Amino acid sequence: MSKHIIYLGMLLWMAISLTACHNGPKEIDAAIVNIPVSAEGETDNSKMPVISFDKLSHDFGNLMQGEKVSYTYHFTNTGKSPLVISSVVPSCGCTVAQFTKTPVMPGDKGDVSINFNTETKHGMISSGVTVQANTYPSETRLTFTAIVETK
């Protein structure tokens, strides 16, 4: 029960945050981020958005220290309601992420792009980003690996 309360609180915060900002490409209707929940607290997954990535991981291979590389993860909303990504959180300061900020309608596609800076890295690297969205579960982990060789 407390998990559902926390989940609904996060969604309320996300809805307020997204509708309060008017500089974005499009105002988001609060109904878009509505998560169907029964009176008993059960989530009706059949009506929710589903984020389906083409790949959940990427291998950059061998890189030289100081290189900056990018990769884009592509996804489709295979669910039955609009999908909204609230944030993409990198696991370290060496990674910056950009993502589709407008609602992704059922059947439509979106992207999560990462930029990885190897300046302070060496050896085998395994890192990633956590995508937070109005899906169930609310988080999807995208990972990447590389072997960073020193100069």
Question: How would you describe the overall organization of this protein?
Answer:
With 151 residues, the protein is mainly beta. It is built from one helix and eight strands, in the order H-E-E-E-E-E-E-E-E. The strands form two sheets. Strands 1-3-6-5 form a four-stranded antiparallel β-sheet, with no helix packed on it. A four-stranded mixed β-sheet has the order 2-8-7-4, with no helix packed on it. The chain is elongated. It starts with a helix and ends with a strand.
Short précis:
The protein has 151 residues and is mainly beta.
Helices and strands in order:
Blueprint: H1 2-20, E1 51-53, E2 57-64, E3 68-77, E4 85-90, E5 95-99, E6 109-117, E7 123-133, E8 139-149
Parallel strand pairs: 2-8
Antiparallel strand pairs: 1-3, 3-6, 4-7, 5-6, 7-8
Main beta-sheet annotation: 4 strands, antiparallel
Structural class: mainly beta
Mean pLDDT: 83
Distance between the termini: 53 Å
Number of domains: 1
Q: Which homologous superfamily in CATH is the superfamily?
A: Immunoglobulins
Backbone shape: elongated
Number of separate helices:
1
What is the CA-based Rg, rounded? Answer: 17 Å
For this structure, the CATH topology is Immunoglobulin-like
User: Briefly, what CATH class?
Assistant: Mainly Beta
**What low-confidence regions span 5 or more consecutive residues with pLDDT below 50?**
18-27
Please provide the count of β strands: 8
User: From the structure provided, what is the oligomeric state, counting identical versus distinct chains?
Assistant: single chain
Percent strand: 35-45%
Relative helix content: 10-25%
The arrangement of helices and strands along the chain is: HEEEEEEEE
